[in-house]
Prior knowledge:
The protein is α+β, with helices and mostly antiparallel strands. It has helices at 2-17, 28-37, 40-46, 56-63, 67-79, 99-106, 117-130, 133-140, 170-176, 186-193, 211-219, 229-241, 267-274, 300-304, 345-349, 370-381, 384-389, 397-408, 412-422, 425-441, and strands at residues 54-55, 84-88, 91-95, 147-149, 180-184, 205-210, 225-227, 245-249, 257-261, 286-290, 310-317, 328-335, 355-359.
Amino acid sequence: MGHLTSRDAYKNLEDRINWFTQGAPASETLTKILEVLFTEKEAKWVARLPIRPFTLKKAAQLWGTSEAKAEKLLDHLCEKGLLVDSYDRGVRKFVLPPPMIGFFEFSLMRTRGDIDQKYLSELFYQYINVEEDFIKELFLGMDTKLGRVFVNEPVLMTEKTNHILDYERATHIIEEADFIGVGTCFCRHKNYHLGIPCRQNAPMETCLTFGNVARSLAEHGGYTRPIDKSEAKEILEMCYGYNLVQMGENVREQPAFMCNCCGCCCEALETVRRFSPMQPIATTNYIPKINYNDCVSCGKCEKVCPILAISMQENNLPVSDSKEEKPAKKRRPVIDESICLGCGVCARNCPKKAITLQRRPIEVITPVNSTHRFVLQAIEKGTLQNLIFDNQAFANHRAMAAVFGTILKLPPLKQALASKQFKSVYLDHLLSAQNARKKKNL
């Protein structure tokens, strides 16, 4: 009976994780991962918590215990990186982070002795890299992507900098952050335990987090080291030197994280390569273009591209200043624009500056904030009702207004899908009123 009770605790936790938009497909490996990260008691209690932010009072009510005992357990879960806390108008709130980017990463963002990180790394590899269901669902299961790429700012010509929007700049994200932390890269740390060294010899401490997440991880368990904006920019510049790709949360305002990723270790970049031409990450608004008159066919761009989007091919391409009667025939780099991230690593490494970044003809749309992204993803996954009604997490006017406000700004098709999923008379009324105002203004 005890064994069944234990399994039920972790099964309930799996179900709770999958209540939210970004879940984790059930498997024996996932259960083993949760058994490493959560004790049976912790799994049982966390399974009762809302997915959205909740207060100490709410946790105590759900657990049927005193606020003092509830706070002690909540603090312990924060220390283990399984919850993060924040303060809203002086009220402390907690949230269960998703698996990725979330408590999976936090478990390896520092060296710790309370869990077997080597065994955990092996489980992560099995679950993420071998079984594939999780990584497919995470990166390919929705049109609205979890992460987006930042353009390599130093590559852009001075006269083009006025065309870069603020949210496209990694330096702007750093400048706007009210708290910054840096931690160990989950992907490289995992591979270290697997005996797979980074081929780019990239440093470990490159994972940047911002805002409440960074503060919580720094204060509870030391998963991040607090740094100022100057050091954050120095880390960014160092990562440019290692040809790392900057990827962050796919929002314009207050992203929670920014990774500096190598092509050999990063789960997201590996997914791009494995499932090409499907695009699991939101690209930048730039695309590299090659000036073949200046290109010397050195092949360096092919070598440094983190997702193998550039290949050296034999082409008959005319060279405008060539004195030959026939076009020159030699191997030249060709860019697969269907999968190119627009990161700018190739342009940075071109010795002849023959590669420049140009604005994409169709702008890549980025969600405004986390609420916007959550709603879009919930509509695409058919789980909007979970987002609204999860343990009354949104049962207040302010939170409901944020969700409805986001829905009202969506295209008509997305609004229709949201209305169908939510089946709310209130939402239908809002949408009808909005459409009536639009017709009246025509």
